[in-house]
Amino acid sequence: MTQAVLEDAPVVKPRRSRLTGGRALYIYTWVIMAWLILPVLFMIAFGFNDTPGRYNQTWEGFTFKWYGRVFDLDELTKALVVSLGVAVVSSFVAGALGTGIGYALGRFRFRGSGTLNLIMFATISSPELVMGTSLLTLFVSVGAGLGVVTITIAHIMFSISFVAIVVRARVLTLDRSIEEAAADLGANAWTTFWRITFPIILPAVGAGMMLAFALSLDDFVVTNFTAGTTTTFPLWIWGATRVGLPPQVNVMGTLIFMAGVLLAVASSIRSRPRKRS
Amino acid sequence: MSWSRRVLAPYLLVLPGGLWLLLFFVIPMVTMLSLSLQQGDIVNGYVFTGHWQTYVDAISNYRVQLVRSLIYGAITTILLIVIAFPVAYWIAFYGGRRKPTYLFLLLLPFFVSFVLRTISWRQILTDDGILLGSLKQIHLLPDNFHILGTPAAVIGGLVYNFLPFMVLPVYVALERIDPRVVEAARDLYSNPAAAFTKVILPLALPGVFAGVLMTFVPASSDYVNSAVLGSPETTMIGQVIQSQFLVSSNYPMASALSFTLMAVLLFGVFSYARVLGTEDVMKVAAR
């Protein structure tokens, strides 16, 4: 999502005197930004809190010790591993299935595309709660055991449409003449796709997969209903709220946050020179 | 490429993903609808009896929570429009070269898990925590003051968590407005207020519409914020559904509640769409 937004913003600078607001809105926007980032700063700070145990609400002094003991809680580490595994698998499967749909919708006119669009719109706009509960009723009625597999199935399901929409948008802006040129030069459809089309839509596929990865890693609601006794990172945190959150959660949250930010910054820097040329 | 392959290609491409959506989105909805009309229990199994009474019971037992969820969702959505519009407006018209940076900063918190951010708010707002505790120590707040457990905390959490889903679509709509249109309005002697209400606002409405779609449904059906930041007096329908499914294992009742919630939300969204005109709905749907 971030990536798409970063690239789609054309530079328009209106004459200031013609528009209302300005100074007051500038301050207002920064106040809202500060409000948005406040709990994140709290999370980062309290990963350095020298608290004796699970009660991590009052400041007890600065320490690095939780960074050394970040993997001390086996259950939490296991939950994080499950989350990362599910996110990787579902981003690849949803990436493949969603690319197929997105490419077909962007390139061909075919019967049933309207229905498919409607179903995709429905998966994106349905309450997650209803998606989660309905999957639970399906799994219960066919007697499927809940666990990593059912979580992954669910995550692939809600990620497909996001990937498809990102890919479709890219395919729609494709210059068909490049493909026609390849065909004129004797390439068959298969070669044209893999040598010409796929490299062009690859950034969109990558963006879709990153979105799927992020959606999967962060999902709580659908996972809560399809997990059974399996625990993912958000589910573990949810379960721990009643007994108090250990500082390791803050440390892991901080590390995931840093990794995400670095990845986003890196990909925006990489895409910049191409944009200028 | 042969004629038949050319015709078959889109179907072959769509088949795996389409099948997945059919199996794990469409069919579960049907299963849940069917289960809501069945009777029985988890040990002895369920029999389809077309038992509509479950819906009557569901609504009469949990009317309070259902109405409360819709009210919280509506308040959240209205607050989101009021809070998000100026931010989107400023970034779109004054952001200049730094627009991507501002949007990035706006999305920054979303690199932290939704549940973790909400819990972070609880830790900040807790009665003797870093914020209220300090304010009480310097006697800016009375000792018995608390935020957690109140509707304000729950709605605040919802507004916090869904803010970007309102800012982004409004921003996209505002960003598409050609500044020259606004200048033309000024050249035709409209004052800034008139230029805003007659030109900018109507052009931004599709974005606001998309924002409402993206925030009202998830806010009304959310159960994380009300569970983490609320109290029994702020219980939302999502919590009821969650506990009916995962604690009581009363599947027919839980399914009926889940379906009722979806029906009410869809009804709300479509009536809203009718008021604004179906044109915009299709535009949003097509995007």
From TrEMBL, chain A:
User: What organism is the protein native to?
Assistant: Actinoplanes friuliensis DSM 7358
CDD domains cross-referenced by the UniProt entry: TM_PBP2
List the Pfam families.
Answer: BPD_transp_1
Q: What is its main location?
A: membrane
Intracellular or extracellular location(s)? Cell membrane
Entry protein name: ABC transporter permease
Q: Enumerate the PANTHER family for this protein.
A: PUTRESCINE TRANSPORT SYSTEM PERMEASE PROTEIN POTI
- ABC transmembrane type-1 domain boundaries: 80-267
Membrane-spanning ranges: 25-48, 79-106, 118-140, 146-167, 196-217, 251-269
Regarding the membrane, this protein is recorded as: Multi-pass membrane protein
Give the family this protein belongs to, as stated in its UniProt record: Belongs to the binding-protein-dependent transport system permease family. CysTW subfamily.
Q: Name one GO biological process term.
A: transmembrane transport
Which keywords are on file for this protein? Cell membrane, Membrane, Transmembrane, Transmembrane helix, Transport
Domain of life per record:
Bacteria
Give the matching SUPFAM superfamilies. Answer: MetI-like
Q: Name one GO cellular component term.
A: plasma membrane
Automatic annotation (TrEMBL), chain B:
Signal peptide location in the record?
Answer: none
Top-level taxon:
Bacteria
Q: Where is the ABC transmembrane type-1 domain?
A: 66-270
Transmembrane intervals: 7-27, 70-91, 103-125, 145-174, 195-217, 253-273
Q: How does it sit in the membrane?
A: Multi-pass membrane protein
Q: Which GO terms describe its biological process?
A: transmembrane transport
Q: Which CDD domains match?
A: TM_PBP2 (cd06261)
What PROSITE patterns does the database record attribute to this sequence?
A: ABC_TM1 (PS50928)
Chief location:
membrane
- Annotated Gene Ontology cellular component terms: plasma membrane
Membership in a protein family: Belongs to the binding-protein-dependent transport system permease family. CysTW subfamily.
**What name goes with this protein?**
ABC transporter permease
According to its UniProt entry, this protein's organism is Actinoplanes friuliensis DSM 7358
Give the organism's phylogenetic lineage.
Answer: Bacteria, Bacillati, Actinomycetota, Actinomycetes, Micromonosporales
